[in-house]
Give the backbone structure.
Amino acid sequence: MPRHICFIISTFCYFLPTANASPDYLQDLIKRAEELGLAQRSEWRVLLHYKENLLIPGVTSEVDGANFFNAPDGVTDPQAELEATLGVFFQDAVEETDDLQHPQCTFVARYHWLKQELNFDPRRLSEQPCPRFSHWVDSLNPGGATLIFPAAYLNNPASMFGHTLLRIDAKDQDEKTRLLAYTVNYAAGTTERNGIAFAVRGIFGGYHGYFSILPYYIKVNEYSDLENRDIWEYQLNLNEDEINQLLRHVWELRLTYFDYYFFDENCAYHLLSLLEVARPGISLTDHFRFWAIPSETVRYVTENSGLLKKVVYRPALSTRLSRHLQHTTQAYYDLIPKIATGDLNPEDDAFSRLPPRDQADLLEITFDYIEYQKAVNKKTDNEYGKRSFELLQARSSLPVSEEPIEIVEPEIRPDKGHKAGRFSLGAGYQEEDAFAEINWRPAYHDLLDTEGGYVPGSQIKFFSFRARHYDDRRDLRLDELMFLDIESLSPRNMFFKPHSWKVKAGVIRKNLPNDDSLLAGVVNAGMGFDYQLDNRYSFYTLLESSLELANDYQQNYALGIGPTLGFLSHINPEWGVHTYAALQRFGLGEQRTEYELMLEQSFSLNNRNALRLSLARKKEFAVYRTEAIASWQRYF
């Protein structure tokens, strides 16, 4: 029988009177629950995910699966849902299957809490065994919980802000065996591989979001090895009772769903709701009603909930390889790819003449390099396994002890970087016209913001807004509105060969002759390379293409292409410099040639405030303009 038909039949049966039901006792429980105000208690509100409506009185549950509720109007009526839930607890015993459980087991967290508050009489309300749930909890052997934060990954729209998941640590595990633990993960239920399509549908709630349980080593392999993302583990100060109630609620959620929204009801937001169930009274999700950036949710948990116990840093495979390279003589760099491919073997004279210590280092780092290549190229063990085994054999034959490379934890954790929101006030001149400027960016980071806690060379801005008021005009006018502005400058060398890229879309004001201007829709994308010197100085080149749309253009559009050359340096943690030269030749539609020279500098005063100076020379529609701006920036 189809699963949805089973659900309809079982749900209908919940409301039928049963032989063992006690109507008098049920009414007694409902009356006591009303007297105690249980439907208004935070414990009940978080178990049902009720949130105050923004415009009209009342509450609505964020759960979108109908099978999560027992009352027809349970999604908006906490009291009706509580009464209906008490009623289904009186159902006759059933034989558990994959599709059918007794309501006391289906809603095991609600049953546990209501039993505590109302002190159920087992003679009048029989407690049902829940073997499937009990076996599941026993297999997890819960002894602790850890909030996991893999760093941002710009090449995947679902993870460009980072990601959070919850690890359930077993009682008998230690730091060496944590990979064997299980994780609670919330994600959109989709196989969509097109990043743009995923982002668009995710913004508007086009997917269902589900909770799932997966082994931690699978997630580490996905994030740390395949995507080369550092992982931060925030061990939480939860006791056994709190962890057990959290898991009861995860069991309740496993067969239902939420509408997945990229900016607010995402992975980070709904994991906070699990922590609220574990420790009722801590308000976490209320602070992220409009958008929930994973790093910001982690920051709030660590600073405001009293839940943080310990932080562990797990470096990505690429991070480990980079640190190993820093401890290897650069003269040997050319040998590593040759050893990896078999062009140079440990028994060859060119290798065996090296000092034993250097041989050992080369074999160890080449093994790491092969593992990295296997991950990024998504190759099977068979394709690299034989060579890795040969290198391990050669290394074991050397009479040199292993010297583990120390991976230094970054000075600033993701939850300690600057806040994602930013507001700025500025003043400047464009030619001889003075102006004041306001700028607002709800999320999340740009190339000149301090890098601590963020991916170096990354820029992610959503819905950034800029408006200006010129002295010779009375109005405050829109100068720029960018729906998205993403840039990834990833350094290349002989071992790491990523591409750098950018994409942005929005509305921007274009200057015309005779002090006139217009607003044009803009889509811009570019691809290129970035090269880094001394870990601080970055030179990049991009080939960019731009499409502009405006009614005043010939044929209403302009399509151009051209190069950009840039230099980016964070000279120290407080001082950043960015300069670039860009040329665009618009050969289709509104034909013209534009260029821009830009020099920007940012000076961080503290984690909440910065000063920024910029100087630009632009040519638009044969009009040359020079612009200088000084602004104060406030992160919030």
